[in-house]
Amino acid sequence: MAAPATTGGMEYLLRTVELTEPLPTVRLAPDQTGVGLVLRRHDAPVGFVLHAFAPGAVLRPAAIAALLDGHLSNGETERPPLDPDAATRVPSVTVAVCTHDRPARLARCLKSIEALAATAWGRRVGLDILVVDNVSSDDRTRQIVCDVPGARYVHEPKRGLNFARNLALAEARGEILAYFDDDVVVDHSWLHGLVAAWQEHPDAAAFTGPVLPYELVTRAQIIFEQWGGFGHRFKRVRWEPAMPEIRYYPCSPGMIGAGCNMAFRRDVLLTLGGFDEALDTGAPLPGGGDLDMLYRVLRGGYPIITEPECLVFHQHRRQYRALRHQMWTWGLGFMAFATKSYRSDPAHRPLLRRVVVAHFRRAAKNVIACALGRGGRPTDLALAQFGGAIVGLLGEYSRSAKRVEGIRRAVERAAAAGPISPVPMHGEREQQRA
């Protein structure tokens, strides 16, 4: 892996390479210091390669071939394409986008989903598009949804991602409910991959896929990808409820998928009681909800499938300060999830204790390695994740549960006083953020 970029104005070129065609020559611009290659075979995504080069470098086919060596999924077999006109049964699908005050990104996300709905697979599954507006500050979100044919708009007055996810669960019409963050672009192969995985694994309750960068135009975005990003996951995996050969499984569900790109059988979500609203509660605790649900699906006895064709492109944080905060929230959210799981799942308490100890041991080693210049990343990012984990372990889940009860009571009082406006006033927004 290339060393982190150090100049804020540099960027990496993102390029798709179709492996069944002659390899291209790739030319970098004078302000481009590396490449990110999205690898496809017969249009199906199969891998991703990231590498630094000198500004303006010209990569001939032989250099591209050397770059790709060893980066493809090992032993992956090609799946024959499914026929959307075949008589085999397919699931109905709802895609839910939970959003708060990001109308431009929402519009871009919905454009990719609208294109998905217009494909043969979109028509076959009767793709249902649902947008949950989580207390946006103006009416732009509603107007954007109105411009998407067939899309539905619902308003969730309680601020917090898992509140919005649970409203989507209540409003969904499909057998499969997929959740996308508003800052992703959904690949055109996503539905084909979902249906294929669903047909091959009819007992599976959840599906995840790779998350690649939408852009690599800042130092923060490049570092994040070099650190592993959200996980590329280009190998098909069936995650069983028990896999003793994997250490700490299933108490480290981050290896399975990310919340910006996950789908579930709706009946299983209902059986499990929906998402824990004390996790992913917005600014105080913006994480842990996806980890918790994936863990609970496995603990409920259901398999989870990672499908490479279920690909999305995520716009990573452009600002370095925002990336540092993200690392803090990752540590915070993981420990909040671990604390909640320790309380609610006594059978796994010994394993969860080992997971927490291993997490801090690994985090401490990362901080030391980075401080000595051997960690491959800035020290402050490693420290942020370590610090967030400490705060998360020291009661963050309990504090969040109390905040959530306060949010519920406030919304109930407002509902009793009169109709709840979908557009809160400025002072109300600031109170919610506090």
Task: Detail the topology: elements first, then pairings.
Blueprint: E1 11-18, E2 26-27, E3 32-41, E4 44-52, E5 58-59, H1 61-68, E6 93-99, H2 103-117, H3 120-125, E7 128-133, H4 140-146, E8 152-155, H5 161-171, E9 176-181, E10 184-186, H6 190-200, E11 206-208, E12 211-213, H7 219-226, E13 237-239, E14 261-265, H8 266-271, H9 289-299, E15 304-306, E16 312-314, H10 320-344, H11 349-371, H12 379-417, H13 426-433
Descriptive account of the structure:
- It contains 13 helices and 16 strands.
- It has 434 residues and is an alpha/beta fold.
- It folds into 3 domains: 11-68, no CATH class; 93-318, Spore Coat Polysaccharide Biosynthesis Protein SpsA, Chain A (Alpha-Beta Complex), CATH 3.90.550.10; 323-433.
- It has an 8-stranded mixed β-sheet, with helices on both faces.
- Helix 4 (140-146) links the parallel strand 7 and strand 8.
- Helix 7 packs parallel to helix 10.
- The longest helix is centred in the last third of the chain and has 39 residues, at 379-417.
- 43% of the residues are buried.
